[in-house]
Amino acid sequence: MSPVLVTANYKLSFDALRSELQGVDTWILVLDTKGVNVWCAAGKGTFGTVELVRQVETAGLSEVVSHRKLVVPQLGAPGVAAHEVRRICGFKVVYGPAHARDIKAFLEATMHATNDMRRVTFGLGERVEVIGVELAAVLKWIVLIVAVMVLLAGGESIVDRVRTVMLTASPILVGVLAGVVLVPILLPWIPGRAFSLKGAILGAVAVGTTLALTPGGHSTAVNIQLFLSGTAAASFLAMQFTGSTTFTSPSGVEWEMRRALPFQVGAVVIASAIAVVRVFGG
Amino acid sequence: MTTVAYIRGVTTIELDSLLCNGCMMCIKVCPHPVFTPLKRMVEIREPDLCIECGACALNCPEDALSVNPGVGCAAAILKGWVTRSKPDCSC
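YS: structure for the whole thing
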């Protein structure tokens, strides 16, 4: 009577499940989600009723086990209709815990998941873990933009050019880091519910501080230009973090995007206008 | 921070109590404390905690729940606007 556990062919999911199952006698039925994790694949429907039923039939599961039960990870539920699976192939879907780490306790408790096993949290550790993904995505843009700026900058030597660029670019880079690194870390403690607002608040503080501490300082026009672009970058990038969280609804993200994007774009437009006037007007 | 509410009053989750048979499947599949069990039925207690993943509606054998499911991801929604298609994350 070994239970059948269902998972996706995302390597990390499969390995996490397998390593939790040492010394436990089970079958694992792997759905083809094209290497995508269970929760995301369920949202797309690739981890879903049709694929589950197909794999049950392909594996000849009704010949392999005598019982008629499938343990599906709870986060697969957005793609799987339990009552449909039963109607089509006769197997009863039992939703297991949200995390593989609880699978042993779940099986020992005769397939009962406690409330804690059903919940998805988003603590400091989990937030820090996902920062790297976003950071890697913006880092290549930063390197590219700074490189172009160094090429275009005036100055006698490369050292001069880099120094000029860093004086101008550093407040914006601070804004980028505020949005990508600081907002995720400090998320629950920053005022506001909208991520774009949290990003704007933290960005304004971080960019403002950087400008105030800049040796020699900039002209007022340049200060305004850098403050607006740095804060807009922080706000926009903080908003992107909604995709990494476990508690943002699409309706909520759309709500804040419709309100925040005009401000973010507006700030960049004003900053660019100042830059154009400075270069060509004065 | 186990139960953090996001933007208030915008989620699309709805329950038709007349159709609910009290099977509690929605409570089993929901990753947040959105539902509360009542006698032989459930109640949406915290609609602001709903992430609109669609698991409850899909697993409700009586079609008592409705929600406009999707991904709560700015990049996916932006991409959807630009390409005029359904938001789809590339994760």
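YS: worth flagging: Residues 124-281 of chain A form one domain.
IM: good catch. Also The longest helix of chain A spans residues 250-281.
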